[in-house]
Amino acid sequence: MKKTAIITGASKGIGRSIAENFACKGYNVIINYNSSSREALEFEALLNAQGLSGLAFKADVSVRSEVDAMVDLCIREFGSVDVLVNNAGISVSNLFTDITEAEWDSVFATNLKGVFNCTQSALRYMLPAKKGKIINISSMWGLVGGSCEVHYSAAKAGVIGFTKALAKELGPSNIQVNCIAPGVIQTDMLSDYTDEELEVLRYDTPLMRLGKPHNIAASALFLASEDADFITGHVLSVNGGYVV
Fold first, then answer.
1. Which pLDDT does position 191 carry in this prediction?
2. In the sheet where 28-33 sits, what is the strand order?
3. Which class for 173: exposed (0-12), middle (13-18), buried (19 or more C-beta within 10 A)?
4. 29-74 pLDDT tens trace
5. Which has the closest alpha carbon to 214: 2, 68, 7, 16?
6. Which of 29, 89, 153, 180 is least enclosed by beta carbons within 10 angstroms?
7. Among its keywords, does the record have Cell membrane (predicted)?
8. Exposed/middle/buried for 75, CB within 10 Å: 0-12, 13-18, 19+?
9. Contact 87, 79 (CB under 8 A)
10. Residues 11, 42: Cα–Cα separation, whole Å
11. Could you tell me which of 156, 162, 177, 167 has the C-alpha nearest to residue 224?
């Protein structure tokens, strides 16, 4: 029986690369999206045209009812949820003194509450099966903090704490919970950076290059594999040496 993975925020960037990797390895993949419907549906069609198994589903991860509907659909269509990758996230740069309450709440709703919603919903099926892999996408700024990104850094630090605590709780149920903390990855989140700013980021990365989405996707696929069955509560830093 094929395994099934739910990938949140999978219409583009890191999430899309993760979903593509899993589909190519034979997984059924739920392609979660919220606002990027065109990209998600085109990606679904592309996977299916290649004989792979992808199903796009719209759900705002900050809304529990929408998340439950997504997970329930996964069970109806594929019979199980074997892997959950909590990738959906938003990034907003702002001086701390300029962050509005609405902006703070929005970042936490997607980046941290979304992880809570999706994980608790998936556990309705993982716990009775006594197996499952939960992979949370944090950030290197969750490890060390980023100037002008206090809300983002705080939420991503919360994802790391969430991972470590839940790994201890779910260990006896044979469910592994791990985290990936990406460095500077070439996605749409860098679209507002100038060439000069990107060059500084490259210079500050010991490997002297920016990461690609497939670097994160390969790490997620490993953590979902049987080779990682004895790894839980771990934070895998994929950042080219930016944070060591």
1. 80
2. 53-58, 28-33, 4-7, 83-86, 132-137, 175-182, 235-238
3. middle
4. 999 999 999 999 999 999 999 999 999 999 999 999 999 999 999 9
5. 16
6. 153
7. no
8. middle
9. no
10. 9
11. 177
Residue carrying the six token digits 């109806």: 76
Active site positions, annotated: 152
* Residue type at 108 in one-letter notation: F
Backbone φ and ψ of 69, nearest 5°: -65, -40
Contacts of 45 (CB under 8 A, 6+ apart): none
Q: Report d(CA 65, CA 72) in Å as an integer.
A: 11
Read off the tokens for 78. Answer: 């594929």
User: At which residue do the structure tokens 């991972």 appear?
Assistant: 163
Instruction: State pLDDT tens for residues 181-193.
Output: 999 999 887 888 8
Average pLDDT rounded to a whole number, residues 144-159:
97
**What is the rounded CA–CA span in Å between residue 137 and residue 86?**
6
